Amino acid sequence: MTPPAVILCQTQMGENVGAAARAMKNFGLSELVLVAPRMEWPNDRAQILASGAGDILAAARVYPNLSEALAPYRLVLATTARGRDVLKDIHTPQSAARALRAAQAQGARTAILFGGERAGLDNDELSLADAVITIPTAEFSSLNLGQAVLLLGYEWLKSGDATPAVRTPNTGGQPATRAELVGLFAHLEKELDAAQFFFPPAKREAMVRNIRAMILRSGLTDQQARTIRGMIVALVRNKYRGKT
Amino acid sequence: MTPPAVILCQTQMGENVGAAARAMKNFGLSELVLVAPRMEWPNDRAQILASGAGDILAAARVYPNLSEALAPYRLVLATTARGRDVLKDIHTPQSAARALRAAQAQGARTAILFGGERAGLDNDELSLADAVITIPTAEFSSLNLGQAVLLLGYEWLKSGDATPAVRTPNTGGQPATRAELVGLFAHLEKELDAAQFFFPPAKREAMVRNIRAMILRSGLTDQQARTIRGMIVALVRNKYRGKT
User: Fold this and answer.
1) Stated pTM of the model
2) Which of B25, B86, B95 sits opposite A169 (nearest CB)?
C-alpha cells in the first residue's frame, strides 16, 4: 500500500519544506512533490530543518504546474483553512485519512495538497482536488505548513495503526486471585481491628466496604498483594518495637 | 471546563518552549508550566517562535521541581517514547484526550507532562503520573517537543469537537428530485440516440445503465441538473451550426 504523496504548492520558505519532510518521516510518508516553488531548490534551509529526512528531500520531484504534478493520482485531497467557500465535501483529517487508505487498498495512488504560506491553495488549485480537508483548531489560530503536514501524516499513520487505546503493560505478575485478595482483606482488617482503627464501631462495616473497594480498584497483581501484606507486617512489627 | 495544563520538564531550548506555546494556542490550551528549565527564562528565542502566543509565555509559571508543579492537578498524564518500561496504563493520544475530558467534566484540573529534549521524562518524573501517553510513529522517527505538544493539543481539541467527519457544503441548491434526474436522463439519452452514440445497439441498455449510475453518483443539485441540460442543448446546437 503506497502512502499518499505530499504535494506542496508555491512554497516560499525552505524551512517549511524541511519541516514537512521531517514530519513525513515521522509518520511513514516518503513521496514529496513541489509545485512551482517560490524559493531556491535545492535549498539549504530545507536541508537543515529536515534533519533525518534528507532522503525525502533528495527524492522530491519538482513540477512547474499543478495539473502536471497531479497526473498520476487517483484521489487528491486538498487542505484549506476553515470556512473557505468550497463546493466539495469537507473532511476532517481523520475522515480524510480513512478515505486515502480506502483508495490505496484498491491500488490507487493518492495525494494530499498543501498551499503556499501566505494564502493557501487558490481556487484554481482547489478545483483539481476531489475533496478538501480542514483541520479543526481554536479561534485565532494559525497552523504553519510543517504543522499541517504533521497532523495529516499523524492521522494517516493512525488510520492504519492497530495500537489499542489503552494498554496495560505486563508487569510480570498475574492479576491476584480472589483468594489472595480475600487473604489481604482479612489480614489488613484483623490488624486494623487490633489497632482500634474502626471508630465508631457502628461505622466499621461501611469503612471496610470502602477499603475493599479501594484495593479492588487498583487492580493488584499477585506480587503486589504480597507486597502490601509485607508492608502491613513491617508496620505492625515496628509499632510493637516502638512500645518495648 | 479548564483545558489541561502543559508541563515542560527540564527543557533546554527556548525555541521549543515557543513552538509549544504556539501549538497550544492553535488548539485552545493556555496554561503553561516550566519545571527546572535548563535555559534562561524569560527567553528571547521562545518569544520569537511563539509568534501570536506571547500571552501564554507571559503567563507561564516556573517551578524548581516537579512535585511542587503538579500539586493542584488531579489527573496527570505523561508523554513517553514508545517501548519505555512503564508500570502504568499506556494511552494513545486520542484515548488520553478522552480521559482528560472526562476528568475535566467532573471539575478536576488536569495536566500533560513532557520531558526534556534529550532523554524525555526520567523514571522519577514518570512515577508521579497516573498513566502515560505514547504517540504512534513510524520507525526511526523523532518527534520534537513542539510536535508532541501539537499532537496532544490537537487530540484534546478534537475530543470536544463536534465537526462531522464529512460535511457537504450547502451549494445553494437542493438535491435534484427524481423527476429532474429522470428528465435529464431522457434528454441526454434522446440526444445520444440522435447522434448514434450507442453502438453496437445491443449494448445500449448496459451503456445507459452505466451513464445513469455515473450521474446519480455525482449527487447533483437541481441547479446542477439544469446546468447539464443546458450544456447538452449548447453542444447539440453547436453541432448543427457546424454542419450548416
Assistant:
1) 0.89
2) B86
